[in-house]
Amino acid sequence: MKTRKLATLSLLLAMQVALSFFFIPVGTNLRIYFTFIIMMFVASEYSLPTVIIYGIAEDLISFFIYPTGPFFIGYTLTTVLSMVIYWIFLHKEVNLLNITLGKLCTNIFANILLNSLWSYILYSKGFLYYVTKSLLKNLLMLPIEIIIFYLLYKFIKRLYDHHDKRA
């Protein structure tokens, strides 16, 4: 990987870790984050191995800098799965359909199902309790997240490409 791309990826990672400190709490172990913006952008621009390593690094660094509960490897797996799903849908072409499908699959499989399973294992309330809370939050946020990324992508991409050409 070129030094410039690695440096840019490191800056994106630092921005995502910083952004992970800011969230809207909506319940026990249920928060609205905006880190998906950077995750989706990284998935659209880098190779699958890079995306996987990025997901692992982001989750571990975020946890060690600002732990919001006990460390659990399941959440790291969720982050990696999210990155892989985003990559599957966005690495070839970023358009409204691919953004929607990538965000929908991530919300269902990673955010709702896996994170509910991890919360059930860690906090011992019923699995359906966590699924219900997560389902409501993720379905309500889905159109908002799709619109946010769709509108921001072109701006972020322009900055990214401009930086790449300058160096």
- Per DSSP E runs of 2 or more residues, the count of β-strands stands at 2
- Largest pleated sheet: 2 strands, antiparallel
Helical content stands at over 70%
Q: Could you give the order of strands across the largest sheet?
A: 1-2
Number of helices: 6
Summarize model confidence as the mean pLDDT: 91
* Measured distance between first and last alpha carbons: 15 Å
Features:
167 residues; mainly alpha; two-stranded antiparallel ribbon; 6 helices
Short structural summary:
Helices cover 78% and strands 4% of the residues. By secondary structure, it is mainly alpha-helical.
Walk me through this protein's architecture.
The chain is built from six helices and two strands, in the order αββααααα. The chain has helices at residues 3-19, 36-45, 48-65, 73-90, 96-123, 127-166; strands at 24-27, 30-32. A two-stranded antiparallel sheet has the order 1-2. It starts with a helix and ends with a helix.
Task: Give the SSE layout.
Elements: H1 3-19, E1 24-27, E2 30-32, H2 36-45, H3 48-65, H4 73-90, H5 96-123, H6 127-166
Antiparallel strand pairs: 1-2
Helix pairs in contact: 1-3, 2-4, 2-6, 3-4, 4-5, 5-6
